[in-house]
From TrEMBL:
Similarity field: Belongs to the helicase family. UvrD subfamily.
Organism for this UniProt entry: Actinopolyspora mzabensis
Protein name: DNA 3'-5' helicase
One GO CC term on file: DNA helicase complex
Sequence ranges assigned to domain UvrD-like helicase C-terminal in this UniProt record: 272-576
Amino acid sequence: GVSPATGLLAELDAEQRAAAEVESGPLMIVAGPGTGKTRTITHRIAHLVEERGVPASSCLAITFTRRAAAEMGERITALVGDRGREVTVATFHSLGLSIVRDNHAALGLPEDLALVDADRRHRILVSLTGDERRARQCVSALSRARRGGEVSGEVSGLLPDYTAALRREGLVDFDDLLVLPVELLRGDPELAEWYRRRYRWISVDEYQDVDEVQYRLLRLLAPAAANLTVIGDPDQAIYGFRGADVGFFLRFERDYPDAPVRALTRNYRSGRRIVEGAVRAIRPESLVPERALRPVGADSEHPIVLHRASDERAEARFVAGTIDGLLGGASFHSLDSGSAEGYETSSLGFGDIAVVYRTDAQSRVLAEELTRRGFPVQKRSHDPLWARAGVEPLLRELGYAGRRCGTVLRQLEQAAAAVAETLGEQAEQLHVAVELLSPLASRFGEDVAGFCREVMLGAEVDALDPRADAVSLLTLHAAKGLEYPVVFVTGCEDGLLPLRWPGEQRDDTAEERRLFFVGMTRAQRRLYLTRATRRGQAAGAGQRTPSPFLAELGDTAVRDGEEGGKRSAARQLSLL
Ligand code: ATP
Ligand code: MG
């Protein structure tokens, strides 16, 4: 019984509407890439507020990145007007920070508590261990201990002194942002109840990538009967390496036994052969039984294009040359001769193109080649923003409140000038950092504190400017949730995709396959999978064989140069 398409839900298809209009209680939406999960949840929230009388302030939407949160907030506001601003759109970390700030007194923290930066944390650890090297070594073990994991006695002995030192300076670290709210709500049932009443409607996008502490926080905020909607795709779970566990997604039906499960099967994003190829690539290790994904959107018949280059320089030249052709038009039109699509996509700009790769190290040669041709690029990884060289000194300089005034953007430039005086030859790093932060800064008007918080909580990819006329260079992890008319997945080689560090025993082929699946499904019209037969001078250099994932693609893919023509079975076999 799907109701007729009226109001806001008219912009959804029947499956999406059936998910969006579930009355109340827990709900799970399981669906593949490009099926409109994010769109459905955005419309569901707008529908609740606009057409069901739910107060916007009682809605909490949790997204995976700050950028996704900003976008979702904008879309909700576009759908329901100014009231949309009262919806809380957060990441787990920003939600945690707001709970910690609201309860700073109970936690023994000052009102102006701050997030510790890497430099200050290092100095605290040096003072505790008396040793630079040990200070560096214990950082990740401390984090594990803080989250309740197993660690050596030495590290667990250090933990109380470390937290005490943080608190003395009015500081919290990233783990605190999740662990403190969990401890707080567990220890104070009345407070937990207050938050449950405050956020009566909760939705979580990309639920397949929650980790244990996030899961525990969510259980406290949304017990079994709560209005909790989780949305995700187990086949896009790619953050296991950093503690996420797709098991929480898979056990949702046990945790919330009354929850209906809705599936979305229509892919609006990608051309037919891209969808078919991606489904073939994930199938051998898919976590979704009977995965259904039907292409209905882009009416593109283009096959996936495979390219084999002699080395990474040649691979970069192929990428740059292909982009040149797509944008320049000449070769593109001959390729598409006569088709209406040729004219449509000939208006492609640099911003329509993403080049993705498994490891950040691969981006250097790609960026060099694109820049050499005069193509603008924006390079983003999934690492935290503060980890990029130059960002922390800028934030510290900006932190001297009251010394400057004007827009954050202006103050950022002034801060850069001041830092440049003290740091001298690292000028290039500083320049890159300012470029990275500028699109974010322009969103914050004169709110320096808000900007600094955003930078501390954000990943590089959050500073991606979707309107920039530049080619996006992204790690596969950073590309999650995004879409581009043209995508190059580079480095499709065994050892790189799936990635194996030299000497590494851990077998993560399934997660690597999901990464490949995520990469492929970012493409709307054109997907290029490239590889090099030799790569690099470092350890593990030398002859490279194709990624085993390529072998699954069958006739959805062709070797480049063969897009137009027919291929014999023999040619198909030699494709790789
Ligand atoms: P991912 O798994 O990659 O995060 P997703 O399921 O969240 O994908 P969306 O990003 O919400 O998918 O949607 C993919 C694309 O399809 C977007 O461009 C979106 O606007 C479009 N789309 C989704 N649903 C519809 C629809 N009913 N009509 C038209 N376009 C749609
Ligand atoms: Mg999405």
